[in-house]
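Hi support team,

I submitted a single chain yesterday and got back a structure, but I'm not sure I'm reading the token output correctly. Could someone confirm the output below corresponds to the sequence I sent? I've pasted both exactly as they appear in my results page.

Thanks,
R.
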Amino acid sequence: MKNLLIKISFVLLLGFVSMAAQAQEMNYKAQSLFLYNFVKYSKWPSPPLNNEFVITVVGETPLVAELQAMAKIKKTPEGYNIVIRKANTANDIGTTQLVYLADNKSKELKPLLEKTKGQPVLIVAEREGLTKKGAAINFVTLDNDILKFELSRKMLESHKLRMAGELVQLALLVD
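Hi R., thanks for writing in. Yes, this is the structure output for that exact sequence:
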């Protein structure tokens, strides 16, 4: 009887782990769609270099694969190709229009803010609360597993960026 309970518990645990992994994968797909809509419904003050809109991901995250898949089939509304780059630190970002800061590199926010100060770079973070520390956008998962985003209008303005009102209305505003 004890062995049967252990086996049932193990099977249930595997099921929950599998469901959690699938939910996380869906979360990265949703984040990829959100990022595309941030690109689509935001305005930068000048066109990107070489007709390439660059999204740089700082840190390791499965989101990179989702973004690369998206970039193969989507362009910006202005017709620019979307290019996905990876960086290990804020110093490695190069010329970019959007930086996604993976959870495992949250400590890079301060150097990233220093490097991009006054530049038209949209900073999007994965860790909750980073909009209060300088990111313009931050993903949050609500109690009911709904993915939302926090938005700092102050940080958008400081980076000379504008976002469509319809998208702003979907945000959880922090200022």
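A quick pointer for reading it: The first strand starts at residue 42 and ends at 43. Let us know if anything else looks off.

Best,
Support desk
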